[in-house]
Structure formats: C-alpha cells, structure tokens
Amino acid sequence: MAVQTPAAPPVPLPAPARARHPRRPRLTHWIFAGPATVLFAVFFAYPLGASFYQSFTSTENGRTTWVGLSQYARMLHDPSFLDSMVNTGLILVVQVPLMIGLALVLAVLLNQSWLRFRGTWRAVYFLPAVTTLVAYAVVFQVLLKTDGGLVNQTATALGLSPIDWLNDPTWARVALIGSMTWRWAGYNAVILLAGLQSIGREQHEAAAIDGAGTLTTYTKVILPQLRPVVLFCVITSTIGTLQLFDENYTLTKGGPDDATLTPVLYLYKVGFQQMDFGYAAAIAWVVVAVIAVISFLQFRFFGRERKR
Amino acid sequence: MHGQLTRRALLAAGGAAALTGVAGCATGGISNREAVRLAPGATGPLRGRITVWSWDSAAAALTRLAKKFEARHPGTAVHVVDIGYDNAYDKITVGLRADTGLADLLTVEGSQLPAYIGNFPKGLHDLTDLVGRHAGDFDKAAWKTVVSEEGRAFALPWDIGPLALYYRSDLFARAGVDPHSLRTWDDYVKAGVAVKEKTGTKLLIMDPNEDSFFPCLLQQQGHRWYKDGGKVALGTPQAVRALTLIKALGDRGLIRWERGWDGLVTATKEGKVASTPYAAWWSGTLTGEMPELKGKFGVVPLPAFTPGGPRTSNDGGSTLCIPAQSKNPRLAWAFTRFLLTDKDNQVSMLKREGLFPAYLPALKHPYLSAPQDYYGGQRAWRVFADLAPHIPPVERNKDGAKAKDIANKAVSGAVLRGHDPAGELRAAAAQLAGATGRETVSGSLR
C-alpha cells in the first residue's frame, strides 16, 4: 500500500540508471501492445460506445433520431420487460442458492478420501458444462416430452400424473431451473472442490483434536475458509443468470406466456426480430447496470466478513 | 452461464458489437439515399451472375428452375444458397442494416416483408415501374404484402397459404361426424367434442410459444394486427371472438400443445389429432413425410365465424425481393419474372415442391383440378384454388413482429392460464399501442 508521507524532506534522489531511457511510449511498445489495442478498440470499445449512443436514439422509417432517455422510460411501462426481470429475480432467488448448495454437497463428497474413481466422478459432474448447447437442448426436449418423455414415464410408473413440462407456464419455469442446475452444478462443484483441496488436512485434524464433529468441522472451520470461492461461484452464477439466453431460447423460446422470458432473450427479440435496435441497446445497458449493482452488493456483503 | 465468465463476456461483447456495428453503418449508409427504382429500359442480352438466398423446398425449386433459366440465357449464372430458415431473418436484417453482404435476390415471407419495407425504406429495389402490368395477376391478399403504405411495390409474391381444414377421414367417420357439415366454428367445437368422446383423439395442435392460429382467425374476419391506417386492432370484437374460440377449444381439452414445426409434424404423423386448420403448403409435408397415411386425409373449407362468412384465411407464403445493394438487379429481376409470372413454372413448383402459386393464371391449370390419390381421390388442390381468391386482404406494416409477440402472450394467458379473453386482449392492445406509439382502433375494448 502506498502510504503518503507529505512531510517527507525533499531529499534529492539519485537519478536511477534507467532514467537515461525516457519512459515515453516508443514504437516497440506499440508494436507489442498494438494487436491487443486494435482488437480491444474494434471489438470492445467501439461497440460499447456505439451501443450506448444507440440507446438514446430511435429509428423510424429508416431515420435515426436522438430521443434522450425515452427508450429507458419505455421499460418502466413494458409488461414483457418487467416480466423478464421478475423471471430473472425468481431464478436468482431459487436456482442460484439451490445450485450452489448442491455444488457444495457434491464438492464435499468428491473430496472424501474413501471415494474411489474420483477423477471419473469429477469428469462426470463437469461434463454437462462442456456439452454443446444443441445436444443439451435436444436431450432435455426429449426427456421432458409430455407423452413418452422419460421424466413423465417415470412419473407415471410411480403412480404420479404426467406433467406438461414445457407447455405450462409454471412447470416450464421448474423445467428451466432444473435444466440449468443440471448444466452448471457440476461446474461449480469442481471450482469449490479446488477450494476445498487447498485447505490442508491439518485443519481437519486440529478441529478433531479440539473435539469438533464432522458437521461442526465443516460449518465452523472449512466453510468459512471457503468463503472467497463460494463468493466467486455466487457472483459468476448471478451474472450468468442475468445474462441468461441460451437455455431458455433453446428450451422454450421464453414462453409460454413470457414465463421463461429473460432480459437478454427479450433484447434479442426486440433488436433482431422487431428491429427496434435503440430499445434493445437500452435494455442491454440496464442489464449491465443491474449486474454491476448486484455484483457490488455481493462483494460488500460477503467480502467484508473476509477481512475480519 | 454460471462461471463461464470469459465466454459470456465474449458473447455479450459480440452481441453488443452486432447490435452496434450495425448501427454505425446505418446512420452513415442507407438513410440519405432515395429508394433505388428499377426501371425498364436496358436492352441487350442478359449476362453476369447472381446469388439467391432461400431455404428448404423453396431453395429446391429455385435450384431446379435456375438450370432451365441458365440454359435459356447463355452467359448467365444463378447461384442458389440454402441459408436455412432458422437464422434467415437474422442474416437479412443484419445485411440490410449494414448495407452490405446480401445476395442479389432474397426470399422473404409475406408476413415479414412489410417490416423490411417499413424499417429499411431504401434497402430494397422499388419495382413499381416494372411490375405494373403484372399487379392484377397476383392474389389480392398476397399483393398487399409486397407494397408499401404509399403503394410502391418492392417484391413479387411467390406462393400463398390459403387456409382450409385438413381432417382425418377415418377418425371423423368413426365419430359419425360429416366434415362437410362443419359450417361454423361452433360446429367445429361440437364435432371436436364428439370425436374426442368416440376416438379419444384431440382436435388440433397449437404451439404455446409461437402461435399462428390466432392471426389466421383475425385475417379470416378481415384484419390482422392493425387496421384503419395503422391503428392497433388487438382489442376488436373480432379479436375477442377469435380468442374466445381458442379458449373454448382449450377448455374442452381439444388442443394438443406441441412446440415448433417438428412437434407439429411428429404429432400429426402419430395420429394424435383429428384435424389441422392449416395452409395449402401443409399438403407437401403430408405427402412427403407421411406417405403411410395416404387415403386418411380430406380437405374442406375452413369453418366460418358466422354462417355465410369467409371460409378461408392465409398463413405464410413468400415473396422475392431485390436488395438495393445488388450488383446485377437486371438479371435478378429477369430471373424473378421467369419464375413467378410463368404459368408452367408456377405449376411445376406446386407439383414438385408443394408451393401454392400466388399467380392467379396458374390456378386455372388443369393440374389443380385433378383428383389426388393421397386424399382418397378428392380434388384437394381445387378446394384451395377456389378459396384463394376469397382470402381477405389485410393491412400490414413494419410493426408485425411486435404484435406477434404480444398477441402470443394474450393467447397463452387466456388459454393456458384461464384468463378472460377480453381482458387479455385489452392489456395486449394497450401494450402494443405503447410499444409502437400507435393508437388503438375506435370501438375497441377500453
């Protein structure tokens, strides 16, 4: 940390040897930094700036005009946008804790010394995260088919009545949450497992000597140390949920009755299907703002305890 | 999601890039230009090369007839690209916004074209000066889809989708219902109840996410999403009647929900429903994908809302248009004319690819009056050909896609969640008016 000492005497420092080479950027610097800078400017800075500008414009009959904040104001009265935010909130509150909890349990199990074929198990749980989206979508469509789908066949065999998974607004949400959890729980479990493995055996032993049972060891010793890793998982999952597009696009297209519509899917529809690019850009920037605020709060909420 | 920060970030950046890269060009590019009028005049032999974008059976038809065209005009080359339906409009939209990258001739559905004409007034060639004498040769409802609100023509209609009721003759016979007695939608609901009781089969398939039945029921009654010069028409008595009908079908358990095209085809093939109120081009799918059901289908005109009312509507149908960025519009136009204003070529596309012609002279061809084995000897094409001139022409504009999404929500709200149709439509009309800055038609629900 650079601590300022304003009263420091003005001792003339001996000129460092390097001072002969002035620190002005030279051609060589730019040659090295050039490709990255150009790529950043073209694919990051320009689109960001242009979409920000675009969010204050509206294009009618081929003419683009400056409309100030009115695209942002539209969102307040747009039932579809509000629905998409409610859906995202619901997924955040239900799916993220469910998935992180499940990932923790999996990670702890995978970390047990008595477990055999540990590498295989780890791979099995990680596989869904690297499965191509199309395969994933097809498999879930087949599993969740109303008649003949494996899920409903099992339910019928157990004497339950079959469920119209993807065609009923409520069940479609359940299906979406379930399939997201399937896809990402293992991924988070592997990250948490890495965290668990960085906690040495001696901590388990010390806790045991102090008389702590397994449960106490985990809740009082291990989990508190895992906090930064959990925080990482929670934040990336939150961001992922706020940017949710592929899962619901492939499974339900946001329907039925907007029950699985998310802001990013909605902005795709608004931009590319309804050709309302200004409004789509405004939605994108609201999503960015929401992600920034929520991530900041999570850092404050979780992060502060770490320093104590 | 969850954790794949880098991939996500890239995707997000890519999306933003797509959104905006496009914007940058649009402001500098097309907006200051007049629509390019393609005029007659140039003479001499055609030459050069064009690329055509299309998909599925339409692409097959183009490829087949392109060879014939090339043989007739030596020195020309027509390159047909099947760009696939799923991303076709994403590609075309981006190409129009960027003012580069499109083919010389594009297939665009009639339902989508008004959005392009309205949003990209300088994006397509204005064909008005060329089509003049052909205008009357095309189906009125299809012609409405290719002209702007100012009456300029930007495409030629290719095929249309007059609606009729396909029914399973075996199931209707078992239920003791004569399909020819279905004169109104009330008759249809009653028949559905009888068929379900006797055979256990539901009556029709609907898509919970991307419904096309509701707008067809609107067009049958004379308007689609908008009427009276661009006013929102989701809250009209006609709309309430249409949604109430769908809800009645749903409440009696007569609807089978299937997502997407594959769901529709599979469930029909498996005999899960007794009827399909659908367009003429569905016939190609039946004969192509379900040859084993030969002799089990029949076709009757669509039931009407009121006795004596219109017995058809329209779903789908495509057009061919020439983007302003085309390097060889003259050849593109010559190929378009060759395809679409030639009786024999049009009939060959019905025969081979199942595309029902929007070109009226083709409907008089004897092929359309021949009995068809697949329909147990019924003259099925005749039913559609006789209905085609009665498709109610409807007003369209650039905001069709917005209306479709919002109407979808109203349909699933009423049918799946059991809400009141009038209430759902009132909310939908208000939402659409807000999203488009348009008024709702007078006499709508308040």
UniProtKB/TrEMBL annotation, chain A:
It is a multi-pass membrane protein. The chain crosses the membrane at residues 27-46, 89-111, 123-144, 171-194, 229-245, 277-299. It is found in: Cell membrane. The keyword Transmembrane applies. Residues 85-298 form the ABC transmembrane type-1 domain. InterPro entries: ABC_transporter_permease, MetI-like, MetI-like_sf. It comes from the Bacteria. Residues 1-20 are annotated as: Disordered. Keywords: Cell membrane, Membrane, Transmembrane, Transmembrane helix, Transport. Belongs to the binding-protein-dependent transport system permease family. This is Sugar ABC transporter permease. The lineage of its organism: Bacteria, Bacillati, Actinomycetota, Actinomycetes, Kitasatosporales.
Automatic annotation (TrEMBL), chain B:
Transmembrane segments: none annotated. Keywords: Cell membrane, Lipoprotein, Membrane, Palmitate, Signal. The keyword Cell membrane applies. Pfam families: SBP_bac_1. Gene3D superfamilies: Periplasmic binding protein-like II (3.40.190.10). The keyword Signal applies. CDD domains: PBP2_TMBP_like. PANTHER family: ARABINOSE-BINDING PROTEIN-RELATED, POLYGALACTURONAN_RHAMNOGALACTURONAN-BINDING PROTEIN YTCQ. This is Sugar ABC transporter substrate-binding protein. It comes from Streptomyces iconiensis.
